[in-house]
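Hi W.,

Here's what went into the run:
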Amino acid sequence: MPGGTFDDTFRAELEELIRWRRDVRRFRKDEVDPVLIEHLLEVADHAPSVGLSQPWRFVAVTGEMERAAIIESYERCNKQALQGYEGSDADLYATLKLEGLREAPVQFAVFCDEATAKGKRLGSRTMPETLRYSVVTAVHTFWLTARAAGLGVGWVSILEPEAVKEALAVPQDWTLVAYLCVGYPQEEHTDPELERAGWEKRE
Amino acid sequence: MPGGTFDDTFRAELEELIRWRRDVRRFRKDEVDPVLIEHLLEVADHAPSVGLSQPWRFVAVTGEMERAAIIESYERCNKQALQGYEGSDADLYATLKLEGLREAPVQFAVFCDEATAKGKRLGSRTMPETLRYSVVTAVHTFWLTARAAGLGVGWVSILEPEAVKEALAVPQDWTLVAYLCVGYPQEEHTDPELERAGWEKRE
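Here's what came out:
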């Protein structure tokens, strides 16, 4: 196809990718080729950003102590979250596996560099949150291209942003947007619609 | 390919799509098939959302008065933004076309329904902003699939969220996340890297 045009076959596969993408919680411990990860990050740099600010900062979380601190933060938050449910909701919540923090071989804390001068704040004066929204599009881009490469990604939000910042010693004016677990998924998904129902079916 | 697996050809085209995607400001006034728009919205419903909350609300902006109110809000904000620049930056800023509000045949204000009970707040208690981040992934999904269909999308952030809410009479607990201009683009992009440079080259 001429540059920048896409045919029906591609569009059908793109939709398939979008429907198959999952939040993965069960990972195999198999290592992921760092060359692949670097490539996915480079592609993610082409995500949209307000004023072309590209304010995302993907911080790899590799050390044992760093990962332990992340897990501790998760445990504190999850315990509090459980207390927000009653009866059968609470029972079910307690059984859910909501993260792959102990198994995922690759993990990133993705921040927004709120102080970046890149783009000279074009487009973000009235709605400064668009800087963080730009980071979300980079995360989503990474998520889709990773899935296309057979990798699972799980976005863990049950964390204390300040605890994560401190554990990773990042600059004060960075805001945590997302924490990502990345690796080859353990689960087999035979039906993209069915297996999503779970928690939702209880409504 | 077996369901859920993607080959190198698809992955290369996906990357091409990501690199070709633009924030479009110059639109042709040609109408867009509403069936196509509906389809793109249905696919966007498969974007990731915290706790499967799907909190996005795409509100079509069609009426003359509504569109006039949006344009007025933009003009107020853009005038203020211009005042934030000096000298040659200000001169350049004043020449930039930052939106297609007068021409784009299809326009959406995309909100986050902050009060949605869907998903029972799973995953969003510690970081409630993840509800809005979920809306961003739906916007980004729409953006990519629209681009694959030859449509341009422009995200206009130079707006007053409260003025937009009021103009569209949406529920009070909805938050404006994005305003989208959609249509067939006027500009031809022969080199995806070159034409992005513009504003950035001045740093």
